Amino acid sequence: MARPRSADWAEADRAAGEYAAGYVEDGMTVGLGSGTTIYWTLRKLAERVAAGLRMRGIPTSLKTERLAREWGIPLAEFSECPGLDLYLDGAKEIDGNKAMIKGGGGSFFREKLIAEGASRRIIVINAGKRVERLGAIPVPVEIVKFGWEWTMERLRGLSCEPVLRSGGDSAFESDNGNYVVDCSFGLLRDPAELHRRIKEMTGVVDTGLFVGLADEVVIGGQRGIEVWL
């Protein structure tokens, strides 16, 4: 079967994103993720809010917050909400156990924090994001600026090639003002164990490995929408 063109993936993103907006019910507090697929979720939620849907969103990124405010989606502070009804977000890769790599935009620490506070977590992707094993793309790691060179050397000790993410003329900064290091490990044997080993390092804030944080997956593809429970 021929690999779908990028335009096909864009349409799959839109279909999956709009479908996922249908999970939001009146009165819900919802964690709002980020990325190309969730962009369409936000657009559809804005339409539903304009038509009378009552909801509160907790944005996981500064970009999502800006879009939600621009489109009229009501927002609340995470600290104001003892529990979220729902969390909607995308992923860069997801395997058969629903483990994921996230973090292309640098907001993965906030995404993980909010995902852990939600009763139900739905990941929204196009079918091209499904993989047998994670690791075709680098694993993002958020690190504090102080001593960042030393932290990178420790990451290199885990048999990876760490690269400080560039933000143009200077290093890229996460939404929390930290650096992000993209670590190429190759295909991962045990994402949970790798996350544990990285997270134990002083200087590391968190990793873009998400394990046990997907209850359902909405997948847009050539045959329409598939829901993976």
TrEMBL record:
Gene Ontology terms, MF aspect: ribose-5-phosphate isomerase activity
Pfam short name (any one): Rib_5-P_isom_A
Binding sites annotated in the UniProt record for substrate: 34-37, 102-105, 129
Pathway assigned to this chain's UniProt record: Carbohydrate degradation; pentose phosphate pathway; D-ribose 5-phosphate from D-ribulose 5-phosphate (non-oxidative stage): step 1/1
This protein's UniProt keywords: Isomerase
InterPro entries per record: NagB/RpiA_transferase-like (IPR037171), Ribose5P_isomerase_typA_subgr (IPR020672), Ribose5P_isomerase_type_A (IPR004788)
Catalytic activity annotation: aldehydo-D-ribose 5-phosphate = D-ribulose 5-phosphate
EC number(s) per entry: 5.3.1.6
Keyword Isomerase: yes
Positions of the catalytic residues: 111
Keyword Membrane part of the UniProt annotation: no
Listed HAMAP family: Rib_5P_isom_A (MF_00170)
Family, similarity comment: Belongs to the ribose 5-phosphate isomerase family.
NCBIfam families assigned to the protein according to its UniProt record, in alphabetical order: PRK00702.1, rpiA
Function per UniProt: Catalyzes the reversible conversion of ribose-5-phosphate to ribulose 5-phosphate.
Subunit structure: Homodimer.
Protein name listed in UniProt: Ribose-5-phosphate isomerase A
Organism: Cohnella cellulosilytica
Organism taxonomic ancestry: Bacteria, Bacillati, Bacillota, Bacilli, Bacillales
Gene that specifies this protein: rpiA
